[in-house]
């Protein structure tokens, strides 16, 4: 007899700039009216004039904001880098770890993580907290990078979970995926 898996995670992937974060925010907006959500998303930070990207912030679903990465930070502290961006690991951990570690006690029905990528995985504490989340079997909505030459072990682990559904976002399907993914979450046995 085939084992039936209940939905454990919805992973969203796609090329950079295709609209993964926008999709997550729209799903959260639709679900927020009916469900208790917890988590964070990343947001580009751009200069005022030209609109050139200078970094990324991490923003919780409750609206708290912190720095994730900046190009050429003014404080000259040594930080790990991903490309041209210096990653503010401590700031990221201060904002996100409480969401991961306290979520099961808060009655959270859906944990939202945008994203599980190179910058976020510079934090070993974040990686350990994510491992703990996976053991708790909480329903997870997360964005992950497209497959590339260097695989990320946590991303590969997420992709191999029983009960995981992976959606690839394109410019052609991103609007339709809002309702499709929202409906998938609502219909899941974990939220029933």
UniProtKB/TrEMBL annotation:
<dbReference type="Pfam" id="PF03266">
    <property type="entry name" value="NTPase_1"/>
</dbReference>
<keyword id="KW-0378">Hydrolase</keyword>
<feature type="domain" description="AAA+ ATPase">
    <location>
        <begin position="6"/>
        <end position="171"/>
    </location>
</feature>
<dbReference type="InterPro" id="IPR027417">
    <property type="entry name" value="P-loop_NTPase"/>
</dbReference>
<dbReference type="InterPro" id="IPR004948">
    <property type="entry name" value="Nuc-triphosphatase_THEP1"/>
</dbReference>
<protein>
    <submittedName>
        <fullName>Blast:Nucleoside-triphosphatase THEP1</fullName>
    </submittedName>
</protein>
<keyword id="KW-0067">ATP-binding</keyword>
<dbReference type="GO" id="GO:0005524">
    <property type="term" value="F:ATP binding"/>
</dbReference>
<dbReference type="GO" id="GO:0017111">
    <property type="term" value="F:ribonucleoside triphosphate phosphatase activity"/>
</dbReference>
<keyword id="KW-0547">Nucleotide-binding</keyword>
<dbReference type="InterPro" id="IPR003593">
    <property type="entry name" value="AAA+_ATPase"/>
</dbReference>
């Amino acid at each position: 007899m085939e084992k039936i898996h209940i939905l454990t995670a919805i992973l969203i992937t796609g090329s950079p700039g295709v609209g993964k974060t926008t999709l997550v925010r729209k799903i959260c907006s639709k679900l927020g009216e009916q469900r208790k959500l917890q988590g964070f998303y990343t947001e580009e930070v751009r200069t005022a004039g030209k609109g050139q990207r200078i970094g990324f912030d991490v923003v919780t679903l409750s609206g708290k904001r912190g720095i994730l990465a900046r190009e050429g930070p003014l404080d000259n502290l040594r930080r790990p880098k991903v490309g041209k961006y210096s990653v503010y690991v401590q700031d990221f951990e201060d904002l996100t770890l409480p969401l991961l570690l306290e979520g099961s006690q808060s009655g959270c029905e859906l944990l939202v993580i945008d994203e599980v990528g190179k910058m976020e995985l510079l934090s070993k504490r974040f990686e350990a907290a994510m491992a703990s989340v996976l053991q708790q079997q909480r329903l997870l909505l997360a964005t992950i990078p497209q497959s590339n030459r260097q695989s990320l072990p946590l991303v590969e682990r997420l992709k191999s979970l029983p009960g995981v559904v992976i959606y690839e976002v394109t410019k052609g399907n991103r609007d339709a995926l809002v309702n499709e993914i929202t409906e998938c979450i609502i219909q899941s046995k974990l939220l029933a």
